[in-house]
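Quick question, first post here. What does this chain look like in 3D?
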Amino acid sequence: FHDFVIEEEFLAEQTMSLLEFKKEQITVYINPHGEPLLYADLPKLIEDIKKSKYCKKVVVITNGMMLNAPFIDKLAKAGLDQINVSLSSTDAKQAKQLMGTQAYHVKRVMEFCTYIMEKTSITLTINPVYLSGINDAAMGGIITFAKSIGCTFIGIQNYMRHDRGKKVAKELSWEIFKTTLKTLEQEHDVTLVHDT
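> Answer (accepted):
Ran it through. Tokens below.
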């Protein structure tokens, strides 16, 4: 793999061009292969995209490792509408294993999720990946945490294998996955099955 950085002006220009072409309200997701918070010009990119009358909202999808209060404030000032944080366990040891690095500090990620809810107008969603046989038991803790900070959208994702991805768990059929979510909904009095 090779890393490369695309200039903010080019990304903004091309995104604006696509929005103009479509001429309808569109949600722009910033979700590259890799971590979007590493992109130095992210606040400027958000700010520029938000200038389009066709931009419904801007959403950043992140693992949360790079979150800190000053950076969250910059994202809020730039006009970020929503941040989706991939939080697949609240247990420190398991979270490090799932992320594949000892540098991942889940308590810090949770602290800044709380900060987003308390100090900004950014909508927070918690998006764990459900890994059958691995983090099944972690879902309850994630739901409890999200509810405790007032996060009303928890979007549990079904782990799906793809050719170039890691093969870390057994895939669940969509039928079994949906049944699993329905069970968690009843146990935790929360909505987990969403149209998205």
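The first strand starts at residue 26 and ends at 30.
Strands lie at 26-30, 55-62, 82-85, 123-126, 129-130, 153-154, 157-158.
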